[in-house]
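QUALITY CONTROL LOG
STEP: pairwise intake check
CHECKER ROLE: data steward
CRITERIA: each record must contain a sequence immediately followed by its structure tokens, with no blank fields

ENTRY 1 OF 2
RESULT FIELD BELOW
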Amino acid sequence: MREECQWFPVCPMKDFYEKGKLDEKWIHDYCKNHWQDCIRYQKERAGIDHSDQMLPDGSIDKNLI
């Protein structure tokens, strides 16, 4: 199994984290470890559109812009 989500390099979560808008917990818990549990990953895989503001748990953070 990969240690990092295949979409992490282009995921908005990476950008938000690098800009200091997203806590490292999200990256650690989802992008680098349990990416198969990430709702964003699941939607990408199924070809379902989703907001850039959607967090890995499926909640929306309207402060992320």
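ENTRY 2 OF 2
RESULT FIELD BELOW
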Amino acid sequence: MKITLNPDEEIVKIIREGLEKKGGYCPCRTEIKPEYKCMCQEFRDQIKDPEYEGFCHCMLYYKSLED
């Protein structure tokens, strides 16, 4: 398993700007809740799933099954 940033630098830039504006909370969510703090609970749960491969909710991180 490997976690990497989205290879699209423009998406990474936009999401990081949003995270900065929202104090580290997912810029794609309307509510400020502990489970939305980046790296969000949803993606941490997806990381634990041995079958999951894909992006986090906001497309900042990607979990690949291969190293």
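INTAKE CHECK: passed for both entries
DESCRIPTIVE NOTE, ENTRY 2: The chain is about 30% helix and 15% strand.
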